[in-house]
Amino acid sequence: MAVTNLPTCDGLFIISLIVILSSIFGTSSAQLNATFYSGTCPNASAIVRSTIQQALQSDTRIGASLIRLHFHDCFVNGCDASILLDDTGSIQSEKNAGPNVNSARGFNVVDNIKTALENACPGVVSCSDVLALASEASVSLAGGPSWTVLLGRRDSLTANLAGANSSIPSPVESLSNITSKFSAVGLNTNDLVALSGAHTFGRARCGVFNNRLFNFSGTGNPDPTLNSTLLSTLQQLCPQNGSASTITNLDLSTPDAFDNNYFANLQSNNGLLQSDQELFSTTGSSTIAIVTSFASNQTLFFQAFAQSMINMGNISPLTGSNGEIRLDCKKVNGS
């Protein structure tokens, strides 16, 4: 009799073991995956891509703007689309934070993407996944790498204005500070250099680099690591007491193409932002060798960039029953 009961006991033991293991490793089931919408919205990626293709026809910089939204979102409470929320009585929008105000853009295109997705698959695709998908589409449409976007993020119920002001790397702070901000979200120096390569396309306002043009760090002189020819051009474009909102290309050579020219620019002191040029001009920094390798090998840069985008997209996502799937990316459901 005891012998016939053994399989039942073994079965119970195995079931118990599975329950114990699943409680220990339960988070694994909540991790992002590439096929999250395969049964519920199989055309999600194609819808995102076609909407961006349409937007590019009238706005060549929209790709860079969309990837910047994803970047600025992920560094504040993780990749949860909190950057997309508008001000309400109870929410202080991250759009008003220093790194975003008057510069974060592309919200209308995010809304267009979300509308198209809601028409195809109502209530299925999160706004945080929209930002991740839009980043990949923007890069590949500009000639850059493609990668498999991991999906399954959910959307936050609130925003973090203070966090946006303190956690997003600034173009005018030291490389050591920026490295610390990357480290705080689990990204390393290789991620820092690779993701900075997104400045191979897009624009920047005079206000984020005019600190280098006339009185750098209180010296009374321009930034010595700024190429003299570029300096003259920028001083004319952004005169002292001129408009801080005038824009210019981040990449002098191929401003709308996603390539490795950004890194070659750094080697000739043609980085536009202080935070860009510091990657190559900070004496003794481990970033110099990475810049050099990416400048000489575009394939290496593309591979590193794709992996670093996946790494960034994995920062503290809301999954399972946390958060919600917003129906309108600008506001929490029911508000």
TrEMBL record:
Binding site for substrate: 169
Binding-site residues for Ca(2+) 1, renumbered to this chain: 73, 76, 78, 80, 82, 94
Swiss-Prot/TrEMBL site (Transition state stabilizer) positions: 68
Any Pfam family hit: peroxidase
Record GO terms (molecular function): heme binding; lactoperoxidase activity; metal ion binding
Enzyme class: oxidoreductase
Subcellular location: Secreted; Vacuole
Catalytic activity: 2 a phenolic donor + H2O2 = 2 a phenolic radical donor + 2 H2O
Active site: 72 (proton acceptor)
Transmembrane segments: 12-32
Segments forming domain Plant heme peroxidase family profile: 31-333
BP GO terms, sorted: hydrogen peroxide catabolic process; response to oxidative stress
Catalytic activity, EC: 1.11.1.7
Function statement: Removal of H(2)O(2), oxidation of toxic reductants, biosynthesis and degradation of lignin, suberization, auxin catabolism, response to environmental stresses such as wounding, pathogen attack and oxidative stress. These functions might be dependent on each isozyme/isoform in each plant tissue.
Family statement drawn from the similarity comment of this UniProt entry: Belongs to the peroxidase family. Classical plant (class III) peroxidase subfamily. Belongs to the peroxidase family. Ascorbate peroxidase subfamily.
Name used for this protein in its record: Peroxidase
